[in-house]
Structures are given as C-alpha cells and as structure tokens.
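Project standup — Tuesday

K.O.: blocked on the structure for the chain from last sprint. Re-posting the sequence here as requested.
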Amino acid sequence: MSYRECVSRPPGGRPRLLPRHAGMIRALATTDDVRSKEPPLGFRERLLTLLHNWLACPDPLQQADRIFVLAGRRYRKSYGVNLLRQGWARGILLSTLSGESLDLSRFAELRLPAWPRLLELQSRIPPQGRFFFLDYDGTSWRAESLPVRPLGTLNEIAQLGRWLRQRPDVRSVLIVSSGWHLRRIRMCCRALLPHTVRFSLAAVPADSVARGRIESTRPPEQDDRPIAECSKLLLYRIVLAAYRIALAGRVEGGCRAAPPRALNR
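H.V.: unblocked you, prediction finished:
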C-alpha cells in the first residue's frame, strides 16, 4: 500500500492517516507494547524448560531391523506404526501392559499390518497375562507373555535385551517413546542390551499426540514431569550400578571356579 493511500491531506492542512489505517497502526503498536511488557520466564519455568530439553535426547532417524515401542500411551504405538509404514524397519515389536487380560481388539484403530493374523492369537493369550511383547516380523505376528516386575521401563528394556539375544538376525532396533522418557531409556539400553546390537531412540513428535493430553496442551516451561523423571533417573542409576557390580561378581566367581585347561602340545 502506498503512502498516498494511507494518508489524506485536507486543503491547506497537514497530512493525516485515514481512520481505518490509523486504527490498524494503533493495534499493532499496542500488541508490540504488550509483548515488550511480558514478564520473562521465572527460575522454575527456565529450569523446567532446560530439564525437558536435556531429557529429550532423540537420535536422527535411521533404518533398523525392528521398531520397538514401549508400553504406555497409545500415541507411541501410532507413531511406531507410522514409522513402519514409512519403511524405517521391516518389523515392529510392541510392548503392552494392561491392568487386566490383554484384549487385542483394542488395537484395531492402529491399523496394524496383517491385522487378522494378530486377532487369531487372541485364543492363545492367557487370561492372567498382563505384560506382552507383540512381534510382527514382516509376515506374521507372535505374542509372548512376560513377567511384571517393579521399575517398568527397566523391565521392558531387560526383556528386550533377552529377546534380542534369542534373535541374532535382529542387529538394530529403533526404540520409540515420549521425548522426556528417552534419557532413562538410553541409560537402560547401554546397560542391558547386547553390545552387538545397534539401537537408536525416536521421540514421538508433539503433533502426533492426541489433543487433550498433557503433552499436547502444556508447554515445556509448565510441564513439571521432568522433575519426577529426574528422580527416576537417579533411582535407575543406583539400580543399574548395583546390577553391574553383581554381574561383575558372578563373572569373576565363574572364572575362579572354572578348572584350568591343559595346554595343547
């Protein structure tokens, strides 16, 4: 818009803004003034933002033999299935934990591949089972009932490590969870997964979270979950350190108990 279109000049008078443009300029000036007067984030808000950014430590997406989705919120599974459709892996391993016996029909909305074959497994699901791995290898589904133990994330990664040791053909895994959950997962993976397996972490994007969830409505500076997550990190660090000490003791004891082997001559 040109200057002449914005102003009018009365005969022999000073130029003035047209009323509609003057109102627009006053609104813009008021908006800028309000923004300039917004108080800066307080110490608690800055701390929460820093903690959130530190806890969320995803890796760049890369191809894997399996996508592993941790139990919990449904949007994690939805994002994992989307990654499978995009070709980031040839199979997917879903970790599921339910308060009652597992009902496979509740996964219908995920539009899982080979869905009828998964439903066929319902008759083999034990009624007392609560924790399962559902594995899709690209052609068929398998369900495995697992024990429920304290420290759920640690138990899931420990079971994933056992699962990987039984399948040497799976040499890489892409692990999906919420962003704030990833640092604790990484700690567990480094301690419990086979060293021959490459793992990478993927955070569920904010736009993949269903509206109404805390993750979609609360900005990082107002989300106080990182504080609780840091306390869990400390607990997991202590537990994993004790696990390493116990494992080292078993290895050392086994070496001492092993009889000396005769040298070949």
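K.O.: great, moving the ticket to review. The longest strand covers residues 92-97. Residues 56-248 form a domain with the Rossmann fold fold (CATH 3.40.50).
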